[in-house]
Amino acid sequence: MVGAGPIGLVLAIDLARCGVSVQLIERNATCRQLPKMERCNARTMEMFRRMGLVERARAASTPPTTVAALSAEMAAILKLPDVRERIVLLGMDPRGSTPAGLAELDEGELKRWQPIVAASGFKVE
Ligand SMILES: Cc1cc2nc3c(=O)[nH]c(=O)nc-3n(C[C@H](O)[C@H](O)[C@H](O)COP(=O)(O)OP(=O)(O)OC[C@H]3O[C@@H](n4cnc5c(N)ncnc54)[C@H](O)[C@@H]3O)c2cc1C
């Protein structure tokens, strides 16, 4: 495989875990100074969970106190009338939440979709 970006790295790990021998070729000898992934979205965390990496990713992430402070600031900013108005104009519905609220949403989605995926017989290979 060519390219050890996030996609190449994850695919190489996944294939290797399935017993497929992989050679990953990358033109850059070192990592870039700017990280390519500071924030993981819900789908990325889903993949990390499937790969058994979620706890390690969480352990290496921003401390909960910093996340809580950023979250509170963001929720306050989303309540500012001019910010709200601009976001609504873009067709979105701004709502502040908390890290616990997001975790609850994540868990709820898993509970909701797991039986449907199980019933479908779909398996990740
Ligand atoms: C500064 C920055 C911050 C970002 N922050 C986030 C974030 O917080 N969260 C998020 O989800 N996304 C973030 N992104 C987007 C995310 O980085 C990209 O979506 C992701 O890198 C795409 O992964 P990729 O593996 O497809 O491609 P790339 O990351 O572009 O990787 C491709 C790799 O292939 C190598 N390559 C290409 N051609 C060859 C060749 N011919 N021979 C050998 N090697 C080759 C390249 O050197 C490169 O390492 C960020 C992007 C940038 C630039």
Helix residue percentage: 55-70%
- The gross shape turns out to be extended
- β-strand amount: under 5%
What binds here, in terms of ligands, is:
flavin-adenine dinucleotide
Q: Could you tell me the mean pLDDT?
A: 90
Q: What is the first-to-last residue Cα distance?
A: 19 Å
Biggest sheet architecture: none
For the CA atoms, what is the radius of gyration?
Answer: 19 Å
Sheet/helix structural class: mainly alpha
Description:
This protein has a domain at 62-125. By secondary structure, it is mostly helical. It contains 6 helices and no strands. Helix content is 58%, strand content 0%. It is extended. Bound molecules: flavin-adenine dinucleotide (FAD). Flavin-adenine dinucleotide binds at residues 2-8, 25-28, 34, 36-39, 41.
Question: Which helices and strands, and how do they pair?
Answer:
Elements: H1 6-17, H2 42-50, H3 54-59, H4 64-78, H5 81-89, H6 99-120
Brief synopsis:
It is built from six helices and no strands.
Any descriptors?
binds flavin-adenine dinucleotide; 6 helices; mainly alpha; 125 residues; 58% helix; extended
